[in-house]
Structures are given as C-alpha cells and as structure tokens.
Amino acid sequence: AQHTVEKTSVTLLGLGAMGTALARTWLAAGHPLTVWNRTPSRAAALAAEGAKAADSAAAAVTANTLVLVCLLDDASVDEALDGADLAGKDLVNLTTSTPAQARARAEWARERGARYLDGGIMAVPPMIGVPEAGGYVFYSGSRELFEQHQETLGTPAGTTYVGQDAGFAALYDVALLSAMYGMFAGAAHAYALIRKEDIDPTSLAPLLADWLAAMAPSVHQTAGQLRSGDYTKGVTSPLAMQVAGTQTLLSTADQQGVSPELLSPYFALMRRRLAKGTGEEDLTGVIDLLVH
Ligand code: FVH
C-alpha cells in the first residue's frame, strides 16, 4: 500500500504580490491552505485553485496552527490581527519590518500565547517557487518553531535561520538591501556618465555587471579586517591612493555634466578617515565613522 505523508495545513494572511506568489507554492506542493485578504476579491483566484478563503483574519487564524502573515507593514499586521485568538499558534511574520518592530512583535505574540518567527524575504515575487532563482528567507526567533516547520517554510524559497533574537532576520534583510542600494546608486552614476555620449547603455551593462561581480568578494576582506581590527591586512589599494583617485572621478562627473551627489558623501567619509593618518589602511575605517 502506498503511504502518503500529510502536508502541514497553512493559514496565510495577505494576498498582495508576494503573498499570492507564496500561496501558489503551498497549493502546488499539496498543503491545505486557508487565506485571508483585506480586499476579499484578491482571494478569488486562489480559491479557484483550491485554497479556502476565510471571511475574516480571525477565522483564518482559527483554521490552522501555522499562521503566516505577509502584509504591507507592521501597522497592517496590527490591524489584521486585532481580535484574533493567537493562543497555541505558530505565528510567522514575513512582513518587512525594522529589528525593533520584529522584537516588539515577538513579545506581543508571546503575551498572546503564540510561538513567533520573523522572516525577511530576500526575493521578489517571480523568484518564489523557483529554486534556481536563488531567493531565500532569513528567519529568526523561535528555533523550535523553525525546526518543526522548516519543510513547509522551505517550499516557497530557501531558508536561512539567523538566531533566536527575533530582530535578526529584519537586521540581515535590511543590511543586504542597504548594500543593494549602494550598488544601484553606483550603477546609476555610471549610466549617467555615458548618458549624453554615443555609447549604447546595453554595451556598458555586461561590463558593469562583470566588474561589480569581480569587486563583490572584497566584502570578505572587509569582514576579516573588522574582526581582527587590523585594517591594513591584505591591502592592495590603500586609502591615500584611493582618496587621490576620487578627484579624477569627480572631475569626470563635472566634465560629463553629471551631479556628484551619489558619490560625494562616500568620498567625504574617505577624506575624513584619511585625515586621521590612516593612508595605509583599506576603506574599512569608513565603517567606524558611520557608527555612533
Ligand atoms: N514585492 C516585493 O518585491 C517585495 C520583496 C521582498 C519582501 N517584500 C515585502 O513583502 C510584504 C508584502 O509585499 P507585497 O509585494 O505582497 O505588497 P503588496 O502587493 O503591496 O500587498 C500588500 C498587502 O498588504 C495588505 N494590507 C495593506 N494594508 C493593510 C491593512 N491596514 N490591513 C490589512 N491588510 C493590509 C494588502 O491588502 P489589500 O490592499 O489587498 O486589501 C495586501 O494584501 C511587504 O512587507 C514587503 O515589504 C515584498
């Protein structure tokens, strides 16, 4: 006789772009799914695909032990869960929040008798359910909850548990997103430099992508220097040389009619660090200027 393993039943609150993508992966994997969305019409397509659409968030919470929330922001989580009975529930909050909001939400859930796991999604909706796209979710908070539900949580995307401190998933999430915006800013400046020239941006794109990929491993050297406290270890491009070079970048921006406003704040920090007599160091000392 064939033995079928029962899939964990899941409740999901929030059917925006991300919630809908998540929902489809659980349905496809055979998890019984109860959904709720503030605007009920967004649940119709999923109901046609096999989800149960609950009339209220409270009813959706009642339906299953494992309750996932993927709403716009922390205030919408408050609003949606107001009045829901969370006693005995396993609450997993995938809503983007700050570390402080995540820690407060963990305490809030504990007071209501629920185990709590916070999640930071490192993916956009088309990456959900597509393992080769490399998307994953940071989780932090209850280790027991994570371990018990790891298989279910891993259905939409990979899982990376980063500790019992409920704020850590949000912190890792925001750290990676912040680095991403630095990269976007640098790429924006690069495209601006060629904007008025007879250069096809699509010919610059692969060069940019390859250069950024070649530079990305430098984060490992930075981490090693931060850990050891020796910011001269392994230096190939000392701060003094780099500060001198920034003038070429600023002059080129000026000649191309491009505002230096994306680069200037970073260059100013490099100069401030150099003024402390650290010309033989890497760029790592800039980090210490940022931390109050
Ligand atoms: N989409 C993305 O690229 C990013 C990728 C990384 C992670 N984020 C975060 O995921 C959360 C949800 O994002 P989303 O893409 O699903 O967002 P929307 O499509 O805008 O849907 C928002 C849902 O939130 C509901 N909602 C808003 N306010 C309230 C409220 N006061 N009470 C109850 N529900 C509320 C909204 O409902 P409705 O407008 O359809 O009625 C949607 O279900 C988010 O934290 C991202 O930062 C996504």
Summarize it.
This protein has 292 residues and is α/β, with parallel strands linked by helices.
Descriptive overview:
The protein is α/β, with parallel strands linked by helices and 292 residues long. The chain folds into 2 domains: 10-171, NAD(P)-binding Rossmann-like Domain (Rossmann fold); 217-290, N-(1-d-carboxylethyl)-l-norvaline Dehydrogenase, domain 2, CATH 1.10.1040.10. It contains 12 helices and 8 strands. It has helices at residues 17-28, 44-48, 57-63, 74-81, 99-111, 143-153, 168-194, 201-215, 218-228, 239-255, 264-274, 285-290; strands at 10-13, 33-36, 52-53, 66-69, 90-93, 115-122, 136-141, 158-161. The protein has an 8-stranded mixed β-sheet, with helices on both faces. Helix 1 links the parallel strand 1 and strand 2. Helix 7 crosses helix 8 and helix 10 (239-255) packs antiparallel against helix 11 (264-274). It is elongated, with a radius of gyration of 24 Å. Ligand FVH binds next to helix 1 and helix 4.
